[in-house]
């Protein structure tokens, strides 16, 4: 596919084997001959991938039944000058095998760089071909820059029309019950360059804090999106803010996250005060009941010790002793003049609280400079892939 400032401008349909424009202005300004030539170039490159991936699989002694991927990306980056022209900044020509860097071209020193042992043989062969190195350098610094200037001119109206981002801050569950993932999403912006930070108590979170970013991803309407996330505790009371700045549209957003899993301190105080009031009322009721019980017991004892009660007892028992010989009850302690000992007296019912108080809290321009990129990336996946050692040069426009 072809990219301009991270925006797809064309791609190769491998099923129908044809190069297809992705932007209306690409189809409008480029002749049919351009697309026919591009189709033939991509067909040739598709065959090149098949041959070279087979070489790599044999070199690495890999199983033919496994799926392997060889990718190639080349392009250039320029900086817009005051007069509107583009100045070359750097060129890129690199290969990736099964998700790892395999080989890249050092434009400044005109040498190929092999980060892994399996690529060293290819590096030696390509370094010996001086014309290949000169051609690659010339394409990156001149031809690529010329194509980028043309494409920017064709799509100037679309490219210069900036679209601001929409910002969302939300959470989702994880396997650990006590944790959640906090995500900041910025979407719908163009060009595809943006500053996005998640801050905890004013400090920008990084990879060391567990921050994960998706990078820039295209939307269906040619705008972009990016989402960053970090895993935190539900009980975390820190202040989290998602900060988004889109220089092209001059949009600056600060979105604050309100933790719904932590009770508001003000509400908690109200609940505690209400609970305390209920407890006081319950205790007061219990004390009143105890006092009433004691008073009832006292009245019962007074009736039992009255003169009429004593006479009735004497008559029924047939005692010869006069009433005056009976021992008078202690008027100061009527509870002791009962038929039962003090230990057998029924204690007042101690009521339990009426309420348990265990409530549950519950990319067209970069910062500081205007820049642009034109990238052409080739990708091939299948049961076989390739090694760039048999290619005398990269695909050119």
From TrEMBL:
PROSITE patterns for the chain: IG_LIKE, IG_MHC
Residue stretches making up the Ig-like domain: 165-254
Sorted UniProt keywords: Glycoprotein, Immunoglobulin domain, Membrane, Transmembrane, Transmembrane helix
SMART domains documented for this protein: IGc1 (SM00407)
Signal peptide range: none
Disordered, as annotated region: 301-397
Spans through the membrane: 270-292
Amino acid composition bias (Basic and acidic residues), ranges on this chain: 321-355
Ranges of compositional bias, category Polar residues: 362-397
An example Gene Ontology CC term for this record: extracellular space
Biased composition (Low complexity): 307-319
Keyword Chloroplast among UniProt keywords: no
Entries under PANTHER family matching the protein: LOC571647 PROTEIN-RELATED, MHC CLASS I-RELATED
Family as reported in the entry's similarity comment: Belongs to the MHC class I family.
Protein name listed in UniProt: Ig-like domain-containing protein
């Amino acid at each position: 596919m072809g990219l301009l400032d991270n925006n797809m401008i064309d791609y190769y349909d491998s099923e129908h084997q044809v190069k297809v424009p992705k932007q209306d202005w690409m189809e409008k300004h480029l002749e049919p001959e351009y697309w026919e030539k591009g189709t033939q170039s991509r067909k040739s490159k598709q065959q090149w991938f098949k041959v070279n991936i087979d070489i790599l699989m044999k070199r690495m002694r890999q199983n033919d039944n496994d799926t392997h991927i060889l990718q190639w990306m080349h392009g250039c980056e320029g900086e817009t000058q005051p007069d509107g022209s583009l100045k070359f900044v750097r060129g890129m020509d690199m290969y990736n095998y099964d998700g790892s860097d395999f080989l890249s071209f050092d434009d400044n020193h005109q040498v190929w760089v092999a980060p892994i042992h399996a690529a060293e043989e290819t590096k030696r062969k390509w370094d010996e071909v001086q014309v290949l190195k000169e051609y690659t350098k010339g394409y990156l610094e001149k031809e690529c820059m010329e194509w980028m200037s043309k494409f920017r001119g064709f799509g100037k109206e679309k490219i210069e029309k900036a679209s601001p981002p929409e910002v969302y801050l939300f959470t989702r569950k994880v396997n650990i019950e006590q944790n959640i993932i906090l995500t900041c999403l910025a979407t719908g912006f163009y060009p595809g360059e943006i500053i996005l930070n998640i801050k905890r108590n004013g400090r920008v979170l990084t990879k060391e804090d567990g921050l994960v970013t998706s990078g820039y991803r295209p939307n269906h309407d040619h705008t972009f999106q990016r989402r960053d996330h970090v895993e935190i505790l539900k009980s975390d009371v820190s202040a989290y803010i998602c900060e988004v700045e889109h220089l092209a549209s001059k949009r600056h957003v600060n979105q604050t996250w309100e933790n719904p899993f932590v009770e508001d301190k003000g509400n908690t105080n109200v609940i505690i005060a209400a609970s305390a009031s209920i407890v006081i009322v319950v205790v007061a009721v219990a004390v009143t009941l105890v006092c009433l019980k004691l008073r009832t017991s006292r009245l019962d004892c007074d009736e039992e010790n009255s003169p009429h009660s004593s006479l009735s007892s004497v008559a029924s028992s047939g005692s010869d002793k006069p009433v005056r010989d009976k021992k008078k009850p202690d008027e100061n302690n009527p509870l002791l003049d009962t038929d039962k000992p003090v230990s057998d007296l029924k204690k007042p019912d101690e009521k339990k609280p009426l309420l348990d108080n265990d409530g549950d809290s519950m990319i067209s321009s970069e910062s500081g400079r205007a820049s642009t990129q034109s990238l052409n990336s080739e990708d091939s996946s299948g049961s076989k892939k390739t090694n760039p050692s048999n290619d005398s040069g990269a695909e050119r426009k």
